[in-house]
Amino acid sequence: MDFKPHKYQEYAIERILDTSAIALLLEMGLGKTVITLTAIEQMLFDTFEASKILVIAPLRVADDTWSRESQKWDHLKHLRISKILGSRMQRERGLNADADLYVMNRENVSWLVSMTGKDWPFETVVIDELSSFKNSKSQRFRALKRVRPLMQRVIGLTGTPTPNGLEDLWSQMYLIDQGERLGKTITRFRDRYLNAGQRDKNNSHVVYEWKPKPEAEKNVYEKISDIAVSMRAEDWLDMPERMDRIIPIKLNDESTKQYKKLERDLLLPFADGDVVANTAAVLSNKLLQMANGAVYDETRGVKEIHEAKLDALEDIIEAANGHPILVFYAFKHDLERIQDRFKFTRTLGKGSDDIEDWNNGNIQMLAVHPASAGHGLNLQDGGNLIVWFGLNWSLELYQQANARLHRQGQKRSVVVHHLVTEGTMDEDVMNALDGKATGQDALMEAVKARIEKVKE
Questions:
Q1: pLDDT (tens digit per residue) in 289-319
Q2: Phi, psi for 101 (deg, rounded to 5)
Q3: Could you tell me the end-to-end alpha-carbon distance of the chain, in angstroms, rounded to an integer?
Q4: Residue 292 and residue 329: Cα distance in Å, rounded?
Q5: What is the arithmetic mean of pLDDT over 135-145?
Q6: Residue 212: partners with Cβ closer than 8 Å, 6 or more residues away
Q7: For residues 182 and 143, what is the distance between their CA atoms, to the nearest angstrom?
Q8: How far apart are CA 307 and CA 326, in angstroms?
């Protein structure tokens, strides 16, 4: 296929070529991969500014998306890509292969750094989904930070740079400019731009959340404006229409009675005490499981409460009349129950065959956890129907997952169905996602409100 770049893509390519360290904060669907590959191809064969390039990406993206994109466009088909994936022996073979571009999953960053050390061989590094390095305490961040001085070029790609707040940005930008703009340490960044929010009542030194100071976001983005390109899809593309449907799930009397008893038994022990963040997350997970129709007991067995969501999914499948459906589930028992009811359900394996089968229209229903398909996968050729069987509090995962179908190249309107059980925490999560409120604050308030309701 001949690549005819949009104006914004031409601009982004030029910025990569002109800037030795850059973050492309491009919203989903704007073509970050083809933009980066085009710039890489020019650096390798036109300007000769690069010779050995590493791409670090989520596992499925590393295994499928980069090689698929290179074969999709005529000007990129000659690129030789080696995958540093699989067992240790397979990874070493991929690392030692003769190639133009090396692609590896982010989970193996620490291994690669320990393998190469001061002999780090890649002068150019692309970090696909830069936001997955937002935790400054993670091993992957610390490992990459150690070899960052050995890199001549760094290209960071993400559509969601601050999924949980401004604090997420520090470690990502450190990997771009080594702390030149936002400070050398996370402590210094917090002192300058953030205020301590909720603290652990038992340990006043532990801060659960950091809230931006007035004008902090504006000041931070001004600081990084020379090395960050930020664009929204709606400003540049004629995107296909997206229609969101909330399908209310009404429980019968027996299921309602059972649900309310379980909710009461779960929440009443916390009626007279303060709920801290960790406890709230556990309680929320239990309540969302129950809303989906089953819950894990103390022995990790599954206790089924209702089949109302399965019945609603069956109605959608029937109405789809054979059109492919992408289902997002939240818990392992959700998937097991879906597969038990609908034997034709497929999941994403470790290879790229399932993605190819989906895009070729050979899968009637694909069940995926949003965390495993939240970034980078191009699934728009396979269908236009999404069903959220189970919701979660992550606005980033929600937006990224929907963008697997609602993106550039989609030829039909995308319909997103949300199965929301009435009177349950499903409604709280749906309201939070609708209002683009997410994370700990919304979760804590929802759990506290349900505890008060049970007390009454």
A1: 999 999 887 777 888 999 999 999 998 898 8
A2: -140, 135
A3: 63
A4: 9
A5: 94
A6: 165, 166, 193, 194, 195
A7: 20
A8: 19
Name residues whose C-beta falls within 8 Å of residue 17's C-beta, 6 or more positions apart in sequence.
Answer: 39, 42, 43, 47, 49
The CA distance from 65 to 83, in Å, is 12
- pLDDT confidence of residue 159: 79
Query: What span, in angstroms and rounded, lies between the C-alpha atoms of 84 and 63?
Result: 9
Helices (H) and strands (E) in the chain, counts: 19, 19
Per the CB < 8 A criterion, the answer to whether 147 and 120 are in contact is: yes
Backbone angles phi, psi at 381, to 5 degrees: -80, -15
Angle of the 440-455 helix axis to the 277-292 helix axis, nearest 10: 70
pLDDT tens-digit series, residues 362-390: 999 999 999 887 566 788 888 999 999 99
User: Distance between CA 91 and CA 102 in Å, rounded?
Assistant: 11
- C-beta neighbour count of 241 within 10 angstroms: 10
Tokens 């064969």 — which residue? 45
Q: 3-state SS of the chain: helix, strand, coil percent to 5?
A: 45, 20, 35
Beta-bridged to residue 103, according to DSSP, are 55, 83
Q: Would you state the pLDDT for residue 200?
A: 53
Q: How far apart are CA 312 and CA 250, in angstroms?
A: 10
Segments in 157-304 forming alpha helices (H): 169-177, 186-193, 216-223, 233-236, 253-267, 277-292
pLDDT in the model for residue 416: 94
Positive/negative CA dihedral, 185, 191, 195, 201? positive
Q: Which of 184, 237, 417, 236 is nearest to 315 (CA)?
A: 417
Query: Do residues 88 and 14 make contact, with C-beta atoms less than 8 angstroms apart?
Result: no
User: Strand 203-207 to strand 199-200: parallel, antiparallel, or no bridges (unpaired)?
Assistant: antiparallel
Name which CATH class applies to 7-236. Answer: alpha beta
| The pLDDT of residue 201 is above 90 | no
**Cβ–Cβ under 8 Å, residues 197 and 441:** no
* Residue 191: other Cβ atoms inside 10 A: 11
Q: Are 103 and 95 in contact (CB under 8 A)?
A: no
Report phi then psi at 392, rounded to 5.
-140, 170
242-455 shares the fold of 7-236: yes
CATH homologous superfamily for 242-455? P-loop containing nucleotide triphosphate hydrolases (3.40.50.300)
Q: How many whole angstroms separate alpha carbon 394 and alpha carbon 439?
A: 6
**Could you tell me the residue ranges of all domains in the chain?**
7-236, 242-455
Nearest residue to 289 (alpha-carbon basis) of 344, 333, 341: 333
Per DSSP, 437 falls in state: -
In whole angstroms, what is the distance from residue 404 CA to residue 381 CA? 10
Closest residue by Cα to residue 100 from 83, 117, 119, 75: 83
